[in-house]
Structure formats: C-alpha cells, structure tokens
C-alpha cells in the first residue's frame, strides 16, 4: 500500500499561496480576528513526513524557529545546504526523485502519511496522481499575483468535498478527497 499524500495550505481568493517573492504576510488576515491553527495541529498529528521543494525549504529556514518535529524531505536537483536546518534540530533529507519514487522511498522507510508542501511540489504530485486529500483555507484577500497552488494538468482530477467550515475573519476551509474512479 502506498503512502497517503495530503496538502494543507492557506490560499488567497485568487489562488495564490505566496506573493511573487515568497512572502506569506497576507495569510495572517487583517488582524481583526484571532488566527488560531484552523485544524493544522490535528492535521500534523497524523503526518509521518513532510515533502517540500527547495524554495519552500528556504522560506521555512527564514522563520524564527524550525517549525517541524517530523522528518522533512527536500526535493531538489541541486544541493541546498541542509546544515542550518539540522543545527536547529531538523530531521531533513535531500532527494532528487520523481514524485512516485519519493512516495515509494518514504513508504519503504515507514512514512505512510505525507504532507506535500509548496506550489511546484504540489503541482508535480497532482500531475502524478498522488494527492489524496486537499485541505485549503481561503483567506478573504485578492493579491493579484504570486505563487499559484495549481497549475496545468493533462487531465481533470475529480474531487469529492468532505467538509467546509468558516472561521472568524472570513476564512473558509474546505477539505476534498480524490474521487475514486471505477
């Protein structure tokens, strides 16, 4: 059985996960409502490993503290320096593999619930047919340009809505699972 791959992210109404320079400030809302974690802690409790691209890894390194207690896999064809993350206590590994190879590698090493993070990485895993679950929190803001969560697909990916809930400040979170064909 292959690992389950999930996405959990905030998104502007116009479909961006970050500004063109990678800034995430718009995800903080307008400051009028307490942000809370909107289910993030519960989501992370079921995750064995996090898979992200190099740009997302570099963004996470800019945070004041390393935010993850799970294994992190950085996908890159280059050789980003992992030492700063390791010095902060990160269990981090660099891989240069296809999405299917990554999932196979992690499954073989006992990681069965994967959090896929970062725009291009999510797009690659979607195109490979590997995303099983999407939890998307829409932030009520239009930013006009940025890093898109979704990109071109060769074919439609049918999803089933599991739940939608609203939060103070106008945040709307929807959870989808991939529809099983057959």
Structure description:
The mean pLDDT is about 90. The protein has a single domain, classed as Dihydrofolate Reductase, subunit A. The protein is globular, with a radius of gyration of 16 Å. The two termini are about 20 Å apart. The strands form two sheets. The chain has an eight-stranded mixed beta sheet with strand order 5-4-3-6-1-7-10-9. Helix content is about 20%, strand content about 30%. It has helices at about 40-45, 55-60, 85, 100-110, 120-125, and strands at about 5-10, 15-20, 50-55, 70-75, 90-95, 115, 135-140, 145-150, 160-165, 170-180.
Please give the CATH architecture.
3-Layer(aba) Sandwich
CATH classification class: Alpha Beta
- Total count of helical runs of at least 4 residues: 5
Secondary-structure element pattern, one letter each: EEHEHEHEHEHEEEE
CATH topology: Dihydrofolate Reductase, subunit A
* Strand line-up of the largest beta sheet: 5-4-3-6-1-7-10-9
- Can you tell me the number of structural domains? 1
End-to-end Cα distance:
18 Å
Number of strands: 10
Q: How would you name the CATH homologous superfamily?
A: Dihydrofolate Reductase, subunit A
Approximate helicity band: 10-25%
Quaternary state of this entry equals single chain
Task: Report the structural category.
Answer: alpha/beta
**Overall 3D form:** globular
Roughly what is the average pLDDT, rounded to an integer?
91
Strand content: 25-35%
**Main sheet?**
8 strands, mixed
- What gyration radius follows from the Cα positions, in whole Å? 16 Å
Unreliable stretches (pLDDT < 50, length at least 5) are none
